[in-house]
Design goal:
Ribosomal Protein S8, Chain: A, domain 1, 4-stranded antiparallel beta sheet, 37% helix
Length: 91
């Protein structure tokens, strides 16, 4: 699980870097990523599908709490969704 969170964190950092550098191909290369505005500032939303944990030993998601912890550590806003986490990355 730690490896999955590390991969997600690297992807989020790379995504933010591309967007900050004005990569106009962002929505084509990453079609599931939506660029929006919040409080007059650009924002990238990334939906990370974590699953419900139905295949976990205790039938409880372990990846979702780890992604939420990562967002807290990186000071990123997020919203829980059915089977995932919607991460908001300010640009």
């Amino acid at each position: 699980m730690t490896e999955a969170v590390e991969i997600a964190e690297k992807y989020i950092n790379q995504l933010a870097k591309e967007a900050r550098n004005g990569n106009s191909m962002l929505n084509i290369v990453h079609p599931k990523v939506a660029t929006k505005m919040r409080n007059g500032r650009p924002l990238v939303e990334l939906h990370i599908i974590t699953g419900k944990g139905l295949n976990s030993a205790r039938k409880k998601s372990v990846l979702k709490p780890a992604i939420q912890e990562m967002c807290d550590r990186l000071d990123l806003s997020y919203e829980n969704t059915e089977g995932g986490v919607l991460v908001r990355i300010p640009l």
